[in-house]
Amino acid sequence: MAKKIFGIDFGTNAIKVYKKGDGILLMERTAVSTVGKEKKPIAIGEKAYEMYEKAPPSIHVSLPINRGVVSHLDDMVALWNFMGQKISGKKKMNHCQFYIAVPADITEVEKNAYSKIITKSDSKPQKVCLIDKPIADAYGLGLDVEKSRGILIVNLGADTTEISVLSLGGIVVSKLIPYGGNDFDRSIQNYIRKEYNFIIGLKTAENLKKQLVSTTRSKQSVSVVGRNVMKGLPDELEISANEIFPLTQDIFYGIAAEIKSILERTPPEISTEILHNGIFLTGGTSFVDGLDQFLANQVNVRVNTTKNAQKTVISGIGYLAEHSKLTGKYAVPLL
User: Fold this and answer.
1) Nearest residue to 132 (alpha-carbon basis) of 90, 175, 196
2) Nearest-CA neighbor of 12 among 158, 156, 131?
């Protein structure tokens, strides 16, 4: 039985897969390259993402999860079939149990779309269950979810930020905000085009974000290669952190304002516990330099960070997969 239970976090930027008894098996980019009308996958993960903005018209490169929901189900099914083969080899993943992490603040139809990735695939599952991401996040952080009377988690993802308050093993309130790390990329890309008549790809913008985005001003600068619109030729441009700084402030202040709004809707007894425990920051975008201190100053509550911020959800799903009694409490069966 232990060999047949899988936990999955279908993230916007990365998919993580946990196997009961074996730990985290896979962490791949959420990208798939397909060819033909049947959308036969030729690459997934990083290999597929490397083709993004480079592939010829005959190759379709898809990033099939957008703003926390499945936007291209067929592409996700193709991606999962490819990954299933990678995990199981020649053996098919028949009669397995799957536990999928989903945002708490999306519709039931949107949640069910995640389960369809498995049910429409070649996996032929025995059981498919959904688990709310804030719950998995809390267990992945190693928190005492059942007994704690106040946990506030801010999960900063690629396309969304999910702010959740938990108490005594349940979700008190959760809100999914439609912006995340990818919005930094788009802002940087648009700024460079408007200011310099210079075009860069989203992958180049992502690298700029990782190196230059911060909550404080910096003198650092980075050279990028792109296309000069005026010349119509490849060119090189130097971008400074001071230029990027104003582009990101609205998002930082927006996140802080949403945290305050959530706290205003939180019962006083739970708020007291949150003040004692602090806010927990997770997700792949929480790496932004100085973000923890910025939010702490804005909200006046201590902010806790973790080195494994991108893996807390899948670690929590894995923990629940290993503890069947807890899984029964949180998992919503769909099959």
Assistant:
1) 175
2) 158
What is the per-residue pLDDT across 276-305, written as a single tens digit (0 to 9) for each?
999 999 999 999 999 999 999 999 999 999
pTM: 0.93
pLDDT of residue 3: 59
**Structural tokens at position 8:** 């999955």
What is the DSSP code string of 20-66?
TTTEEEEEEES-EEEETTTTEEEEEHHHHHHHTTT--TTEEEE--EE
Contacts 24+ apart (CB under 8 A), 81-85: 81/41, 81/121, 81/122, 81/123, 82/32, 82/41, 82/44, 83/15, 83/17, 83/26, 83/28, 83/44, 84/121, 84/122, 84/123
Q: What is the dihedral of CA 8, 27, 256, 205, to 10 degrees?
A: -140
